Each structure stands twice: as structure tokens, then as C-alpha cells.
């Protein structure tokens, strides 16, 4: 078994991609990794308590919570399982679990989390499921629109959110991703070279006249792409950029919405 002692992003990426490269299937066969490593894997109903959990008791055991959508082979289940494999393969996580220094805890799928251990496991999962070279081949020469994310979701069998966050990091165009619940923004991430870093001044309220705002108010249909002015979404827009247009695509599920924004 290969592990990484120093949990820098570069070494985590190299570790995850080396493991992914051992399997021929484009959508990494996670269960075969589990079998090769002799890990006991269980899918069951654990209520709303967690998405996945890993613990050590003379052997490694992983539990995935089907009641939160983490079923075998699904996009959500695959990311949760890849995240738990991060705890297994990243050596300081693994040693912590074996020696009782890292207490078993239920992982929850929350892209906004800032806990280092969980962030490292998320990054491992993204690199394992969407290796950089394969990902860049998928987007090479493609002008960005929302259909690019749809295709990435299918190609790598991941969620749209996972595909968008990976694209934000290594895609060939700059994007911003905004997530809201019950009409309030929970988190946002943008590409390093995206022209704006700050949302409009009423944050965490959703800026008026944006597509996300219109969708929450029932004045527009989710699942479309529309034009939006920079000044409607972003703060500190210069006078010369007041007429700068962006594209926004918003999808909704019940009381939750995700918008992807890019320059027109």
C-alpha cells in the first residue's frame, strides 16, 4: 500500500492519481480499491448522522450512509467513498486512526468546510475521481458553458458540484460557484484568476436581479443560462466595468440552489 506522510496538496495529488492510474476504468473503480486493500465496506441506513465514517479495530472499516444518498455507484456515494479512502491512504490520517490520535468521526459532504483533515480528504477524493490529465483532456479546446460541467459529471460519474469545484481549480476558463439555502448564500468559490472575489454588499443575502434571486422568488425557471451584469453580483465594480456582462446558470433542488457564473 502506498501512503503519503507529508499532506501537502502536491503529494496528496500525486498519491491519489497514482492509485487512480492502477485502474483502467475512466470512472475509477473504488470498490476494487477497497477489495485490494482488504477494507470492510458497509452500506446502511444511519439516519441523517453522517455521509461516511472510517475506523480501525484490528482492520479498517468504512460505513457509507445510504439514507443521505450514498449508495454504491452513485455520484454522491462515490465521492464519499473516495473521501474515506483519503483518510485511509494519507498517512497522518491513517496513523491517527490506528493509534487513536484521530478519533473516528462521521464525514459530511460540505464543500465549505475548513477543517484541515476533512479538506485534505476532499482534495484526495477530487484527484482520485478526476485526475488532472484526464480532466484537462476532457475540457481542452472547449469554450466554457454549463454543458461542459454536465459532460464532466457524466464522464467521471461525479456530482455537478464536484465537477464544478474541480473545474474551478484546473479548468481552462475562470468561473465562480455560489451555493445558497433558503435564500441565503452559504458559500462561494472562484477560480484564482476570476476577476471578482467579493459578492455584492448585502452578502449573505442573494443579490437582487440575479438569476439565483429570481429562481428563489419563483420569477424564473432554474436550469437555464442568462446574462447578468457584473454590478448585480459583485462588489467594487469599477465605473468602466459597469456594462461588463457575465453568464449565470442556476440549478435548484427543493430549498437549495447552485449558480455558476462566468464571463460572457
Compact summary:
The chain has 264 residues and is an alpha+beta fold. It is 37% helix and 20% strand.
Produce the secondary structure layout.
Blueprint: H1 9-20, H2 30-37, E1 40-44, E2 52-56, E3 60-65, H3 75-89, H4 91-98, H5 116-129, H6 132-139, H7 146-156, H8 160-170, E4 175-181, E5 184-190, H9 211-216, E6 224-229, H10 230-233, E7 245-253, E8 256-263
Parallel strand pairs: 1-3
Antiparallel strand pairs: 2-3, 4-5, 4-8, 6-7, 7-8
Could you describe the 3D structure shown?
- The protein is an alpha+beta fold.
- 37% of the residues lie in helices and 20% in strands.
- A 5-stranded antiparallel beta sheet has the order 5-4-8-7-6. Strands 1-3-2 form a 3-stranded mixed beta sheet, with helices on one face.
- β2 (52-56) and β3 (60-65) form a beta hairpin.
- The mean pLDDT is 90.
| Ends distance | 46 Å
Rg, please? 19 Å
User: How would you state the average pLDDT, rounded?
Assistant: 90
Describe the biggest sheet? Answer: 5 strands, antiparallel
Which H/E pattern describes the elements? Answer: HHEEEHHHHHHEEHEHEE
Number of helices: 10
Name the poorly predicted regions: none
From the helix content, strand content and strand pairing, which structural class follows?
Answer: alpha+beta
Number of DSSP-assigned strands: 8
> What is the molecular shape?
globular
Q: Enumerate the strands of the largest sheet in spatial order, edge to edge or round the barrel.
A: 5-4-8-7-6
Percent of residues in beta strands?
A: 15-25%
Which bin fits the share of residues in helices? 25-40%
